[in-house]
Specification:
Blueprint: E1 3-6, E2 16-22, E3 29-30, E4 35-40, E5 45-49, E6 54-59, E7 66-68, E8 72-77, H1 81-87, H2 93-99, H3 103-113, H4 123-134, H5 141-147, H6 153-158, E9 171-174, E10 184-190, E11 197-198, E12 203-208, E13 213-217, E14 222-227, E15 234-236, E16 240-245, H7 259-264, H8 274-281, H9 294-311, H10 313-318, H11 323-327, H12 331-335, H13 339-342, H14 346-351, H15 367-375, H16 394-409, H17 414-418, H18 423-426, H19 443-458, E17 461-469, H20 471-488, H21 495-508, E18 514-517, E19 522-525, E20 531-533, E21 535-536, E22 541-542, E23 545-546, H22 554-569, E24 583-586, E25 606-610, E26 614-622, E27 626-642, H23 648-664
Parallel strand pairs: 20-24, 24-25
Antiparallel strand pairs: 1-8, 2-4, 2-7, 3-6, 4-5, 6-8, 9-16, 10-12, 10-15, 11-14, 12-13, 14-16, 17-27, 18-19, 20-23, 21-22, 25-27, 26-27
Length: 669
């Protein structure tokens, strides 16, 4: 009896893990406790061992896929046991496996060996044979031959209208609930087009809400049959976005459908470069409709060949029929010499989802990253990914683009030294690609624009500024930053000190940690400090919240600030983490600004802006020298408050307490 291998609990707060590499392939022999695969979580990278000795029968989760704790990863049992499972109670597993891009190529030989020596290349015939042997509803084999699956026969017969006609038998992809207060979302970009093959959990589209921008993955493997909501359209939570179904649903038409895929494979050698172009078009651009079914066909050939190259040896040992392994390698000679020299870069890695071994070191590149690389003229082949399993992340592309700009500007730097008079004219200028363009506002920018105006129209806002000498903190930070980084894993900046001083002052000045309801005539003073931290992202300003910040030390605040900032910029922050703040801090000095007049984040009543810390000469009162001039580390703190609730004297007292705490420098790090 086969044994399931599941993702174990790898920590109290770990809820999911990503398969980074399979160490064994279907058909390989494994011993008890021998590692089967590598898994990465947000806490630890580890190997998952086999609970029993036997043969790896089936891989359920492909590389780079993320699953919940407890999810089935693979099955291990006796050699040949997979044949019994596919003919018996698992009669529906054969069509499901056909829909997997890589998994079907690895498992089809084993299934063929248990089906009276059927040809592996004719997978259509295999599904026509298996269901009648297992089903007891009396459905004639001829009916299943026309549709390719007994489960989809009624739907396929009812929707025989070409590529979009298969939507009736597909799985609906709906807009999920992305937070407690999120009721709608806007489709910002489709990463896949109608006819494209998709894997389980592969991103289909990008959605923007008033809380967060995120990708919506496919719940099943198959083909994108229909797009229900176009880009820039806004729909309610639960609305149908797309339909994903069987890859056979779109072209199916009659009894001659079975030989079609077999004939399509050898007819594509001249068009082999098309999968690379199809991968590039999946970044958001529409696939050329004039190509008809040629692109989906080519895309279907490439994954099969890739899977055969990585897992061909193990299934070949199990299959008893000679034609089975001979059919799948047919497209391999045509594919290998043609696309490999032409695109050793992102096009190859985009398809190497489960077969690691592509031209870029096997790193998986998401369509979003490929699109961003194209926009910034970044060569993905030259990058080293910093993500899980060497994956190239969006930040890697942005860093490479920034480095390229700095490198382009560097040669012009020595010129002003030789000719100071012409310095202003000699500096190179790189015009922005936005010059002369008119484009629609993003969903996030619309939300920011609306809320900023509403905030100014809702509350009576004014700003008070104080100057603070943070020289004691600068000295403390310089003395402790190396040990702190080694101990805590994050850098020690000025921000945790500003946050700690403000949080302590809020406990003594509750009117700034409150909310005002003018309709009810009530003021609510909070008994906790949920501090929102403004984070600058490429899409706009977001304010993730540190809950119960009053309970944290300097080290705890430093870790939290670094964590939410990184996850916000990498689009991994949750919608609920962007709500519930009672007070906001914005670091306006991160780009050198001395101070600003920040706008209140409603329904809060105050926001603190921290300017740049700069060294400058100031007058100080020395115990021995009296008044003297010294170079000190100075910063401006700007507090914007709602004058409906907070008076100027209240704001000044709050800032005075914050200043006193910072200038005393009595912090434990």
């Amino acid at each position: 009896m086969a044994t399931s291998v599941t993702l174990p609990a790898l920590g109290e707060s770990v809820t999911e893990g990503t398969v980074t590499r399979w160490l064994k392939q279907p058909g390989d022999q494994v011993a008890v406790d021998e590692p089967l695969l590598e898994v990465s979580t947000d806490k630890v990278d580890t190997e998952i061992p086999s609970p029993i000795a036997g043969t790896l029968l089936e891989i359920k989760v492909q590389e780079d896929e993320t699953v919940e704790v407890g999810a089935e990863l693979c099955t291990v049992g006796d050699e040949g046991e997979s044949a019994g499972s596919s003919d018996g109670g698992g009669q529906e597993s054969a069509p499901s496996e056909e829909q997997q891009e890589e998994q079907s190529a690895a498992e089809a030989p084993a299934a063929a060996a248990s089906s009276d020596g059927e040809d592996e290349g004719d997978r259509k015939t295999e599904t026509e044979t298996n269901p009648p042997a297992a089903h007891t509803d009396g459905a004639p084999p001829a009916q299943e031959t026309q549709t390719g699956s007994a489960d989809t026969a009624p739907e396929a017969a009812a929707s025989e209208a070409g590529t979009s006609g298969g939507s009736g038998s597909g799985t609906s992809v709906t807009l999920p609930a992305l937070g407690e207060s999120v009721t709608e979302g806007t489709v910002t970009r489709w990463l896949k087009q109608v006819g494209d093959d998709v894997a389980v959990d592969e991103p289909l589209l990008e959605v923007s809400t008033d809380k967060v921008d995120t990708e919506i993955p496919s719940p099943v493997a198959g083909k994108l049959l229909e797009i229900k909501v176009q880009e820039d359209e806004t729909v309610e939570v639960g609305a149908e976005l797309a339909v994903v179904g069987s890859g056979e649903a779109a072209p199916s038409g009659g009894g001659e459908a079975a030989p079609a895929p077999e004939a399509a494979a050898p007819s594509e050698p001249e068009a082999e470069p098309e999968p690379t172009e199809d991968e590039a078009s999946s970044d958001g651009a529409a696939t050329a409709s004039s190509q008809g079914e040629a692109i989906p066909a080519a895309a279907q050939v490439q994954p099969d060949a890739g899977a055969e190259s990585s897992g061909e040896s193990a299934p070949a040992a199990q299959a008893e029929s000679t034609p089975a392994p001979a059919a799948a390698p047919t497209p391999t000679p045509a594919q290998s010499p043609t696309p490999a020299p032409a695109s050793a870069g992102p096009g190859v890695t985009g398809q190497a989802r489960a077969g690691d071994g592509g031209g870029d070191g096997g790193a998986y590149v998401t369509p979003l990253v490929r699109k961003m690389a194209a926009e910034h003229n970044v060569d993905l082949a030259s990058l080293t990914g910093t993500g899980v399993g060497g994956r190239i992340r969006k930040q890697d592309v942005l860093d490479a683009a920034k480095a390229a700009q700095e490198k382009a500007a560097a040669p012009a730097a020595p010129a002003p030294a030789a000719a100071p008079a012409a310095a202003s004219g000699a500096a190179p200028v790189t015009p922005s690609p936005l010059r002369g363009r008119t484009e629609p506002m993003s969903r996030l920018r619309k939300v920011i624009a609306k809320r900023m105006v509403e905030s100014l129209q809702t509350s009576a806002q004014l700003t008070t500024v104080v100057e603070v000498d943070v020289t004691p903190i600068a000295r403390l930070r310089n003395a402790a930053k190396e040990d702190f980084a080694a101990r805590e894993g994050v850098k020690l900046s000025f921000m945790p000190f500003f946050a700690k001083a403000a949080i302590d002052a809020l406990k003594e000045h509750p009117s700034l940690n409150a909310t005002l309801d003018t309709e009810k005539g009530e003021v609510t003073f909070f008994d906790h400090e949920n501090v929102a931290i403004a984070v600058d992202t490429e899409k706009g300003l977001l304010t993730p919240v540190i809950k119960d910040a009053g309970d944290l030390s300097i080290a705890g605040l430093a870790r939290k600030i670094a964590d939410i900032a990184e996850r916000t910029r990498s689009n991994k922050i949750g919608p609920d983490e962007l709500a519930g703040g009672t007070f906001t801090i914005t670091n306006t000095g991160s780009r050198g600004a001395l101070f600003d007049t920040p706008i209140i984040n409603q329904p809060q009543v105050a926001i603190l802006g921290t300017g740049a810390v700069v060294k400058r000469p100031v007058v100080i009162d020395d115990a021995n020298l009296g008044e003297t001039i010294a170079v000190r580390n100075m910063v401006y703190l700007a507090l914007t408050y709602d004058h409906r609730l907070v008076d100027g004297a209240d704001a000044a007292r709050f800032l005075s307490d914050v200043k006193a705490r910072l200038e005393a420098g009595q912090f434990e790090v």
